[in-house]
Amino acid sequence: MKKMALILMIALLVPTVLAACGGGSPVDTVKDMVKALEDKDEKKVNDLACTKDENPFGDSEGAEMSFKDMKYEEKSKDGDKAEVKMTGTMTIKYEGQETEVPVDEIVKLEKKDGDWCIADAGE
Fold it and tell me: Which pTM does this prediction carry?
């Protein structure tokens, strides 16, 4: 039961962590965040986030996340705000269990100091 609770927490954590700055396009920034999540790169996650978090992965230490069949579509871009639709599948591995979770999110981005950062995800 504890394992399932952690898997659910991770599934809910990803949109929160995605609520993260990168140059380039809004789509590039979202792709960079997905890569940082897969790599468990806390520094990169915080670099991409509009709001910094001392512990962006929370209690998910020991869990592995991977993403497959990801598609990204810029839905809107107006000045310093943008939205990117992200779809695909996230796989979470923890203590010998593996769970696939569908991803279908709108990621909101803002431009700060000339770079895109992820402001909110999970709609």
Answer: 0.76
Tell me the backbone φ, ψ of residue 100, rounded to 5 degrees.
-100, 135
**Strands of the 115-121 sheet, one edge to the other:** 64-78, 81-94, 97-112, 115-121
Positions in the chain short of pLDDT 50: 1-22
For residues 116 and 100, give the distance between their C-alpha atoms in angstroms, rounded to a whole number. 29
SS (H, E, C) the chain: CHHHHHHHHHHHHHHHHHCCCECCCHHHHHHHHHHHHHHCCHHHHHHHECCCCCCCCCCCCCCEEEEEEEEEEEEEEECCEEEEEEEEEEEEEECCEEEEEEEEEEEEEEEECCEEEEEEECC
- Report angle CA 9, 117, 35 to the nearest 5 degrees: 55
- Backbone torsions φ then ψ of 56, nearest 5 degrees: -65, -20
Residues 6+ apart with CB under 8 A from 123: 105, 106, 108
pLDDT tens track for 12-30: 444 444 444 445 899 999 9
